Amino acid sequence: RASGMEEILARVVVPLPSYETRDKSPPPPESNSLEFMHFYRSLDKVEKAEFLTKLSRDHGVDHKGVSELAVKLLDTQQRDLATILQVEDRLRYSLTPRYKQLLCHISRVEGGVKFLVDLRADVLELIASKVSESPQIRDLSGTLKSLLSEWFSVGLLRLERITWQSPCEILQKISQYEAVHPVRNWTDLKRRVGPYRRCYAFTHAAMPGEPLVVLHVALTEEISNNIQSIVREFATLDSEEDVNKINSAIFYSISSTQAGLQGVELGNYLIKKVVRELQSEFPHMAQFSSLSPIPGFSVWLQGLLNQYRKDNRGTDLLSEHEWKEVEQATDSSPGSQATEALRKLISSGEWMRSERLSGVLEPVLMRLCAWYLYGEKRRGYALNPVANFHLQNGATMWRLNWRADTSPRGVANSCGIMVNYRYFLNETSKNSALYLQNKVVTASEQVLGLVSQFQKNSKL
Ligand SMILES: CC(C)(COP(=O)(O)OP(=O)(O)O)[C@@H](O)C(=O)NCCC(N)=O
User: Which pTM does this prediction carry?
Assistant: First the structure.
């Protein structure tokens, strides 16, 4: 099989034409691309890893040629600008990996773009699973990402509104791709594209019928503080929309559907495009906000409690009074036993059923959750991926909501808490730059208040 790989690569990954003939050489036969795609699809996971390693290692940049041109460029520094630009262009051309031409040719055959999107998904998985740490694989991923970013730039994407009149195959995909609040049945789906709801997707001519990223919006009077009122209760299915009851747009679910387009920022562009779309439909609409889950909070909290139990530092997290209540409610003795009892309560979600316990735990969990979202970092950015996504877009961490998602999933994932990331339209670009460049998290008074309560308690 390995020899088969080498043979096909040598044949279909043609050498880079010389600089002089680069615009004159005819493209290789389409059959090369089709054969490459067919062969790749016939490989299993392990073979694909081997094949991609060979492709990126043996058919990439001609490093020797690059270094010779780099030396030449150094020697040209005293010459006139025209000569310098000439040599720079040669150097630029020599940095083109051989396989890049093949990728461009593949993009021109039927189904080629989709093939390349899936190819990048495979490469990303290779990198993530550490099956191959080779620098060439990263280079291949970078080359694919830059090509895909050009082909999937906003100007080439189409905004489609999904309604109950949309083709079944699209509605079926919308239902299948819904990653945040799974669609339960047709009635549920119909509600999500019905009155006081909007569902938008970006599509691309090269991948017809494939929603690339999907955004679900609820049109409400105020900014929603719970998901039940959006996806659970089947309130009167009023057939009309009373415009006077529509002042806010709540983004309650967004999902990208193509793993290979990760990093192309489609979700960010879709939110911005939908905001403009809604402003033109509802000129008086003034409030734009997400209602977001907080995946990972419960797990983080249990880890923290475990750590504190080991260090016997539980007291930092709860006040005297709060520990007393927990000890009484769980019939546990002060110290590590109470900390363990609390950890068990959180992981079982039992506390939600007791009015008294949830009363005691509300301020505790709210300030811990505020710290988790605002204070916990990974390489300087928000640890929570959803927070990181909205903060990159320039949203403000605006409001934590208690008992916002009382579904088993909501309680298990984030103790039932949800958060509004609010888009103050004239501040998003400033906030986004502050976050991306200085790692500053823009947050509301409510969030900052909860964070300072946490810090007072645990002197972190
Ligand atoms: C949140 C999403 C849509 C962001 O996608 P996108 O804007 O394309 O960001 P990126 O993947 O280009 O960095 C994506 O990360 C996703 O689908 N996440 C899983 C579902 C969710 N909403 O958390």
Answer: 0.91
